[in-house]
Design goal:
Layout (H helix, E strand, L loop, with lengths): L1 E3 L5 E4 L18 E9 L2 E6 L11 E7 L5 E9 L2 E2 L13 E6 L9 E6 L11 E7 L6 E8 L30
Parallel strand pairs: 6-7
Antiparallel strand pairs: 1-2, 3-4, 4-5, 5-6, 8-9, 9-10, 10-11
Length: about 180
């Protein structure tokens, strides 16, 4: 994590890993930090797209509470069967290849929605990809509910996504001007 000065130079930095900065225990191919999104002043979502807790290459995200100097003071892990129902994420989906803070999509007063995507999700066919929109509870540590967006789900017609890599990148924006 970089802390920048007004001229964009680095004033200080903190590395979060399994051996420093208070990070979670990791394996060499977990890929912690491939995608990151702040969901609060001291709350960070960090992906570990190679995590295999729920099966080879399933992927995971960590919601981390950070101190003012960027050290992880606590974390929770979300993956298939851990914060999400069993069968939500499949093997070799690499969930967490991208993530974005979305704000308050459901207008419940919580700025607690985040997109976490998998470019190789099998839901609509071989490796087409999908994104899970996570609606977090007020504690910012529990998934209240989620919506899957991919080929044939979340409002996308089956057969729309050709090939793979849907969800390889995701960003927040209001493309149609409706405030969401």
């Amino acid at each position: 994590m970089l802390f920048l000065a007004a001229d964009a130079s680095v004033e200080s930095y903190t590395m979060i890993s399994s051996s420093t900065g208070g990070g979670p225990p990791l394996k060499s191919r977990d890929g912690l930090g491939r995608a990151v999104a702040f969901i609060g002043p001291h709350t960070l979502v960090a992906s570990a797209f190679g995590d295999d807790t729920a099966g080879s290459g399933t992927g995971a995200v960590y919601i981390m509470e950070l101190s003012a100097d960027g050290v992880c003071t606590s974390y929770i892990k979300i993956t298939d069967g851990l914060g999400l129902p069993d069968g939500t994420i499949g093997r070799y989906n690499f969930w967490g290849v991208s993530a974005a803070f979305l704000g308050d999509l459901n207008n419940d007063g919580l700025q607690a929605e985040v997109a976490v995507c998998s470019a190789h999700d099998q839901g609509g066919g071989t490796s087409k990809g999908a994104c899970l929109i996570l609606f977090l509870a007020s504690d910012l540590k529990t998934v209240d509910r989620f919506v899957r967006i991919g080929d044939g789900s979340g409002g996308v017609e089956a057969g729309t996504i050709k090939g793979n890599n849907f969800g390889m990148s995701v960003a927040r924006g209001d493309g149609n001007g409706d405030g969401n």
